[in-house]
Amino acid sequence: MAFLIDDDMTMDQIMRRWPLTIRVVIRSGMLCVGCPIASFHTVSDAAREHELDEDLLRSDLEAAASSGGSAAPMSSAPGLRPA
Q: Could you tell me which residue ranges the DUF1858 domain spans (predicted)?
């Protein structure tokens, strides 16, 4: 399975390329939208900084990115737990 989100992509790049990922960011309690650090933080960095489970965050971001513009809710975003 090919992943859309590369390990080196920043949160800013992800949100700009796939706007539906912003929903995941907000539901996860992260304030990456508009944050100047989002231009530097990868998914791994953001998960660590916000004490989130990286695998769940990455999975939800991938689901949003691959949804092709669908406004379907993310299944596990509300259930993200600290790592």
A: 5-57
Residue 80 lies in a domain: no
Of the candidates 77, 4, 12, the residue with the CA atom closest to the CA atom of residue 42:
12
* Residues 28 and 58: beta-carbon distance below 8 Å: no
Which residues, in sequence order, are bridge partners of residue 10? 42
Neighbours of 74 (CB within 10 A): 20
Q: pLDDT digit string (tens) for 38-81? A: 999 999 999 999 999 999 999 999 999 998 654 444 444 445 55
Angstrom distance (rounded) from CA 11 to CA 70: 20
In a domain, 16, yes or no: yes
Q: Is residue 3, in this structure, part of any structural domain at all?
A: no
* pTM to 2 decimal places: 0.78
